[in-house]
């Protein structure tokens, strides 16, 4: 009697380790409803909470959120003020919830350009959540990638000038270790909402081999189903890092 072959279970591709988000469309979403921009930003903050939790459940270990760029200071003063107040509220109210859910918070960007009380809130949040291991959330605040790379190059130049570094020894790994994201794996997947097809001075170095997915909904409408569609799209792609196929 012939034995029936064992049925093999389908092996699903691993989820991305690190997913980065450009959370675009809050202002347009609000204006389409006759509301001020802060209405969209508030709704967007609620989506952040749900998205981080969905990422953690999916097995993602790192999430980076482009929360406020160095170029966003050009927006109307009232809108910037509303954004900063929303950030204060988030840092004050959400840190306890983050800790309960095993979330570690890290902030990258030029903190010197932020108000002193916001810098203090960031430091407290990072310290209180530093031992959490379920998922790491990196918030990019007052962040611009060209400035980040310039700052890294300047640090290397100063070390070389001081005699602590041989310029001939500088390589990609050394420069990467001077970036704000030192010690964090590069994103495997970038998701941008609102249908815009650009990366807007975000993680230019780190996105060199990242898979890009552009979702044609505004961030306040971004739902768990959109996240899972993006993850499935990522899992279908073959990542060759410059090598030939086959």
UniProtKB/TrEMBL annotation:
Molecular-function annotations in GO: transferase activity
Protein name: Isoprenyl transferase
Species name: Benzoatithermus flavus
EC numbers for this chain: 2.5.1.-
Superkingdom as given in the UniProt entry: Bacteria
HAMAP family: ISPT
NCBIfam families in the record: uppS
Assembly with partners or alone: Homodimer.
Pfam families listed in its UniProt record: Prenyltransf
Residue numbers binding substrate: 25-29, 41, 69-71, 73, 75, 192, 198-200
This protein's UniProt keywords: Magnesium, Metal-binding, Transferase
CC cofactor: Mg(2+)
Cofactor-binding details, from the entry: Binds 2 magnesium ions per subunit.
Recorded name of the encoding gene: uppS
Class in the EC hierarchy, top level: transferase
Residues bound to Mg(2+): 24, 211
Function: Catalyzes the condensation of isopentenyl diphosphate (IPP) with allylic pyrophosphates generating different type of terpenoids.
Lineage: Bacteria, Pseudomonadati, Pseudomonadota, Alphaproteobacteria, Geminicoccales
Family: Belongs to the UPP synthase family.
Residues annotated as the enzyme's active site: 24, 72
């Amino acid at each position: 009697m012939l034995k029936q072959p064992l049925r093999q279970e389908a092996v699903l591709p691993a989820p991305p380790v690190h997913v980065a988000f450009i959370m675009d469309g809050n202002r347009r979403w609000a204006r389409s409803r006759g509301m001020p921009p802060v209405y969209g930003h508030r709704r967007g903050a609620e989506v952040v909470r749900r998205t981080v939790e969905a990422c953690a459940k999916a097995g993602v270990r790192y999430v980076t959120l482009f929360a406020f760029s160095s170029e966003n200071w050009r927006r109307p003063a009232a809108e910037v003020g509303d954004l900063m107040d929303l950030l204060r509220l988030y840092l004050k109210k959400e840190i306890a919830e983050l800790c309960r859910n095993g979330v570690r918070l890290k902030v990258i960007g030029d903190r010197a350009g932020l108000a002193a009380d916001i810098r203090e809130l960031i430091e407290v949040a990072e310290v209180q959540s530093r031992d959490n291991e379920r998922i790491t959330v990196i918030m990019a605040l007052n962040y611009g990638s060209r400035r980040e790379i310039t700052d890294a190059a300047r640090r290397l130049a100063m070390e070389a000038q001081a005699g602590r570094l041989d310029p001939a020894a500088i390589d990609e790994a050394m420069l990467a270790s001077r970036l704000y994201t030192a010690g964090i794996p590069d994103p495997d997947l970038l998701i941008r909402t609102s249908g815009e097809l650009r990366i807007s001075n975000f993680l230019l170095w780190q996105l060199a081999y990242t898979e890009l997915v552009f979702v044609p909904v505004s961030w306040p409408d971004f739902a768990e189903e959109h996240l899972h569609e993006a993850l499935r799209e990522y899992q279908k792609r073959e990542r060759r890092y410059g090598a030939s196929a086959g």
